[in-house]
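Bit of a strange request maybe. I'm writing a small parser for structure token strings and I need a real example to test against, not something I typed by hand. Could someone generate the tokens for this chain?
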Amino acid sequence: MSDLVAGLGIALVLEGLLWALAPSAAKKMVAEMATLPTRHLQAVAWGIVALGCVLVGVTRG
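Reply from user aminoacidic:
Good idea to test on real output. This should exercise your parser:
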């Protein structure tokens, strides 16, 4: 359970860093994402999920 909380904490830190260090770029990225087709966003999101699962599997064995 502590690994899950640590993982969520790291995700929040990384997400927060984007907005803290480059808010204009983050806003531009969100606006650009809004113009993409839903299917494209879903495909990218599933790819990120798969990559995350692979990374967890490799590191946690």
